[in-house]
Amino acid sequence: MKMDYLIVGAGLFGAVFANEMKKAGKKCVVIDKRAHIAGNVYTEEISGINVHKYGAHIFHTSDKKIWQYVNELAEFNNYINSPIAVYKDELYNLPFNMNTFAKMWNIRTPKEAAERIQSQIADLQITNPSNLEEQALSLVGTDIYEKLVKGYTEKQWGRDCRDLPAFIIKRLPVRFTFDNNYFNDPYQGIPKGGYTAIVSKLLEGTEVLLNTEFKDFVRKDTENDTYVTNDGSYCFDKVLYTGMIDEFFDYSEGTLEYRSLRFETELLQGEENYQGNAVVNYTEREVPYTRIIEHKHFEFGHQPDTVITREYPMEWKKGDEPYYPVNDDKNAALYQAYTKRAQSEKNVLFGGRLGQYKYYDMDKVIAAALEMAQAQL
Questions:
Q1: What is the sign, positive or negative, of the torsion defined by CA atoms of 325, 326, 327, 333?
Q2: Is-catalytic flag, 262?
Q3: 0.90 cut: is pTM over it?
């Protein structure tokens, strides 16, 4: 059967693209190597609670069109992301704001907070930051860096801040208001019923094959410049590939680097409220996890049980799930080599965080998928 597109990956990018193609009358098949749709925004129900299986996902955007787009797919609640940071036996509000500074320095006014930060920065006399530590110190001073930035960042990247390039932290937002809202975007929330329902709606009417690896499913027919399933049942004019771009090319230019995550999820039966907040960050290097997520608080749940997830950063190796691209000069050059290779694949599109080696917020994923679909149509 002749089809227009094979879409590799049933995550947000692939699902949005598939939906746009379906509306335009194109015939598509979507495959995914996992046993479920929705990629990393997948939510599964445990004890009546929608659990974010691959880490916390809070939808936020400044793009009104994207906000309208997702609200046609689901009703969103009014969840506001206001994480807490734990440093030793101290609790602080994030992002860095007047609540943080009042607790840290026992002060009350924005003027006092600004003077304290500027005094610490001036004492350090850092004029040309040569690494992440110096960059962060030059932005927020010693106290905030030592308690809330250093340990968390070192866990996240698996190396000392002095061994990380300065450009990783371009800015550290400091607010001189008593505002714990982590995001500045005007539109924010969690879809009622979880993200899986959104992706399921996007994929309605499109054939989806799970537990299916791309290279086990199709082969390239160079004579006809198409992709054909190994059993001969389908022929595809084009492929949208949302997997790792280096894996598509069999790592021929080298292996792109990522940071990965390990999740430890626990159902606490009979415990209604474990930590009182959806996201609590642990900023000490000595604590092995970066944060604990209590999923019911994303949707204001009142279930008699609760589900928590500890999130452990780890080095990525082949076979692990890649989460965060390591955007240093070496990997940037390597990715450019792959994009050059990709340009010669005239019937293959590369999209999403893995296909484009780029960390995307969800609204940017949707916008990029819509833009690619429009360009194709």
A1: negative
A2: no
A3: yes
